[in-house]
Amino acid sequence: MTTLQLKNIVKRYKSQTVLDDLSLDVADGERLVLFGPSGAGKTVLLRLVAGVIDPDEGRVLIGGEDMTEVDAEHRGVGMAFQNFALFPHMSAFDNIASALTARRFSKEAIAAGVEKVAKLLKIDHVLTHHPKALSNGQKQRTALARALVGSPPLLLLDDPLRNVDAKLRFEMRLELPRLLAAQGATVIYVTQDYKEAMALGDRIAVMFEGQLRQIGTPADIYDTPAELEIARLFGDPTINLLDVVPQRGPDGAFAELSGVRLRLPGFGPEIVGKACVLGIRPESIVFSEASATGAIPVRVEAETPLNEKTVTLTLTARGREVLVSRPAGTPGPATGPAHLAVNSRAALLFDKESGRLMRPSEPASKRNGEAA
Amino acid sequence: MEAMSPLERILRGIALTLVVIFFMFPIVWILLMSFQTNETILRIPPSVVFTPTLDNYAALITGKLQTAAGTLDIAFMRNLGNSVFLSVVSVAVALLLGVPAAYAFARHKFRGSEDIAFTLLSFRFAPPLLVLLPLTQYFQWLGLSNTYFGLIWVYQLICLPLILWIVRGYFEDISADVEYAYRIAGHSWFATFRKIALPLAGPGIAAAGLLAFIFAWNNFVFALVLASADKQPVTVGALAFVTASGIQYGQIAAAIVLSITPTLALALYAQRYLVEGLSLGAVKG
């Protein structure tokens, strides 16, 4: 285990800035997920930590030691690549052993080390095969084994499940936390899949355009995404985003949805008249009776059952689409007119212009108390 | 392959035969000539029916050429040895210099790297005679004319750009991640070059080396100008058969057959490297 600190990292390719003054602290033994769309600079960041590319500015500290100028082979990190990057002219055994041979271990020690990690990853029966004779899943496990075998204190995993099929990805998503916990390493895990991020990360760092936009626990990111874009990327079905202009009411600000007032608890006059985006998670909306207060009339367009939940697409009177998610097996309308009730405390308000989350002016503790 | 109608098959057969005859005929004719005396070669009309003789080969190997004007010494075997020596050493030197350079050009984009690489390639554009005149003078000043060292140096103009540009492409085709992975596993850049880059570019290096060897072997003009008889390769040595008492077609044919044999054998042997899967399914499934 070790710590990792990145200080004001800048990386440019030609005129394009790929990493823009990025700083990040990863604690000893922490599992940090680096999440972001492709092109955000996640892979560049990981390679920079591994030492195969150099930053233009900034420092990389591993275990408190400045490693910025240190070559990759002396940094003592393990890395698994998204495209596996196996050595095509070597057997799976030699691929995995490559992380040990550099350290002048005895032949027996190398064989024992490789056998152990291969057994753990269930590839001990294909060790003599060359990469081209391995299935995708076996390649991925071999690449993972190569990263793990030297028990590096810092483990960098670059979207290791990206190129494997859905079934295997699901299996590995369950298996990886156990594996990584047994390894006891500090882990940085890159992914574009929010479910993977939520399942694997102690903390998630969300990255866009070379900058870290939000760092927090999976629950933090899901419940209070700092930006519209983050809210959109986390959650399936996607969060409902509705343009609103809050107005002043007798008991604080409210937004009008299809002629129905939705109170925005905690928000004061500062948001009145401002172009905003209201974000409501599909699971924060329920079907209600027409007579219930604040019921919004909609028309049900389509219903999609997804194993554990049912997602309904509805249209408001103004033709805006609203997704509603409810646990599978619970009753709900399949067609025709219906009414929705929105849990306004779960609603998120974003500044339309900047895309940033707007926090209620009242203290959060009070708001939480109200919610409870 | 799709099933073909009989007509298609026949037409295809005829077309293939024509192509093969067109390209193979000169070679077959040379081979036939090498077993004939000048008299049967110069018969009109020519005929493929003759009594084969090994005199031409015997003359080449013993170095004694019987002509109407008497016995002539020829240095064909020495020329052949020169060809082998010059080509092998030139390619070896070019590989030694060119492969690391190709790796550098492929992996490290430094200021002016493209310009330097292109300049090296441009040596191949210039007609050899353009560089030959100044070179002859330089070589005389430097005492390099008519030395193996000087010839091998000049042969780098042929071999080095070829190897550099072909091998560079092969290095560029190797995923950088594969090399990064080896570095991160704890190996130095030099170990990575030796254990990852070289083996993966192996087929390309073999192909480039083979091509460079053939180009060096076939070179005529550099050796003609810069070397005298005892350092000349077969390409130039064959001129010795144009004698005062006539052109010795039989010996020329035999000399050509002997001189293309090594390159032909090498090409056949190296064929498997050329067709071997190059990336070996390195990256992704």
TrEMBL record, chain A:
It is a peripheral membrane protein. SUPFAM superfamilies: MOP-like, P-loop containing nucleoside triphosphate hydrolases. Residues 4-234 form the ABC transporter domain. Pfam families: ABC_tran (PF00005). GO terms for molecular function: ABC-type transporter activity; ATP binding; ATP hydrolysis activity. InterPro entries: AAA+_ATPase, ABC_transporter-like_ATP-bd, ABC_transpr_MalK/UgpC-like, Mo/tungstate-bd_C_term_dom, P-loop_NTPase. It comes from the Bacteria. The keyword Nucleotide-binding applies. It is found in: Cell inner membrane. The keyword Acetylation does not apply. Residues 352-372 are annotated as: Disordered. Keywords: ATP-binding, Cell membrane, Membrane, Nucleotide-binding, Translocase, Transport. Belongs to the ABC transporter superfamily. This is ABC transporter ATP-binding protein. It comes from Sinorhizobium glycinis.
Automatic annotation (TrEMBL), chain B:
The chain crosses the membrane at residues 12-32, 84-105, 117-136, 148-167, 204-229, 249-270. GO terms for biological process: transmembrane transport. Gene3D superfamilies: MetI-like. The keyword Ribonucleoprotein does not apply. Its main location: membrane. Residues 80-270 form the ABC transmembrane type-1 domain. Keywords: Cell membrane, Membrane, Transmembrane, Transmembrane helix, Transport. It is a multi-pass membrane protein. The keyword Hydrolase does not apply. InterPro entries: BP-dep_ABC_trans_perm, MetI-like, MetI-like_sf. It is found in: Cell membrane. Belongs to the binding-protein-dependent transport system permease family. This is Sugar ABC transporter permease. It comes from Sinorhizobium glycinis. The lineage of its organism: Bacteria, Pseudomonadati, Pseudomonadota, Alphaproteobacteria, Hyphomicrobiales.
